[in-house]
């Protein structure tokens, strides 16, 4: 799924990153001064989809009420342009209500995005590559309610409008035409869903222990304003082990499954800065996707650390095909870490991922999972 633009990278002055995290973790008074409320910094983006890009990011901090039991709410805004003439404007926010009985999370994005398409399936050839460009707007709010310690449930809603979809449609020779890809003339989707989450991690940025499970299902329907009727489900499971001398072994399993009349921008895709690193996001895509990865994280010297990661993944038209364990795609890589805030395990990461006939470099803030 690429309907929600994930801001890939924040590369900023170390002091700025530390200051931001100090504010976010309640090391500030209940009443924020104007100087504490705003942070603005430059950024660099790097990924197989972007190549290189530059932009700016800002964070605004606030409290809904003078409540020492709740974390500080925040709204983040990011904009950047890339050498591939991609333009992205994205915002993300976390609003904590009194006592954190409710948490509102939202993601919004607007982008003009030249992209690539190789067709659907797990064995599409590199020679099939086609260029296309979209212009889109997307908003995705989620409201969570604490049921008991570590357990949350909530509802979500998504609206996306791909109001421009440009591809070479001459003579009907494009893959989009030959495979009758839905959404190739643009699309609107609108859907609502349910979310459940168990989170016992000891740190959200770089956990060294605990267990995390999130499941959501979204239903997109005509009566909600969607051009297409389809469902998307996602299961994300993570486990962390503190093995010795601050070394951490982490595992993640991710399953995305879609059914119905799915527009092209909502297919399950392999390759992001979070899983199956080394593949162009969307190099392989279909209705269903599984990905399993492990990562060994170790300190090296003072604030510097390193990681080794491996993974396997696959896309397919149905769940039986993605679970037959044949033609799995590999992902391996190494990375460097620099701690922006050692106490909160907030790292700047640089990863080099390698897939089958594929390679990608990523610069990002925070661990992959």
Provide key terms for this protein.
369 residues; 4 helices; 6% helix; disordered N terminus; mainly beta; 16-stranded antiparallel β-sheet; single chain; two-stranded antiparallel ribbon; Porin
What does this protein look like?
This protein is mainly β and 369 residues long. The protein has a single domain (14-365), classed as membrane protein fhac: a member of the omp85/tpsb transporter family (Porin), CATH 2.40.160. The protein is 6% helix and 57% strand. It is built from 4 helices and 18 strands. It has helices at 14-24, 34-37, 175-178, 319-322; strands at 38-47, 51-62, 73-82, 87-96, 102-117, 130-148, 151-167, 187-199, 210-220, 230-244, 247-260, 268-270, 284-286, 288-301, 304-316, 329-341, 346-355, 358-365. The strands form 2 sheets. The protein has a 16-stranded antiparallel sheet with strand order 1-2-3-4-5-6-7-8-9-10-11-14-15-16-17-18. Strands 12-13 form a two-stranded antiparallel ribbon. The longest helix has 11 residues, at 14-24. The chain is globular and about 60 Å long. Mean pLDDT is 86; it is low at 3-32.
CATH second-level architecture: Beta Barrel
SSE-based structural type: mainly beta
What's the end-to-end separation, in Å?
17 Å
Strands of the largest sheet, in order across it? 1-2-3-4-5-6-7-8-9-10-11-14-15-16-17-18
Poorly predicted runs: 3-32
Rg result: 20 Å
Give the number of helices: 4
Q: Provide the CATH topology.
A: Porin
What is the 3D form?
globular
User: What is the number of strand segments?
Assistant: 18
What's the helical proportion of residues? under 10%
Helix-strand pattern = HHEEEEEEEHEEEEEEEEHEEE
Beta content: over 45%
Characterize the biggest β-sheet.
16 strands, antiparallel
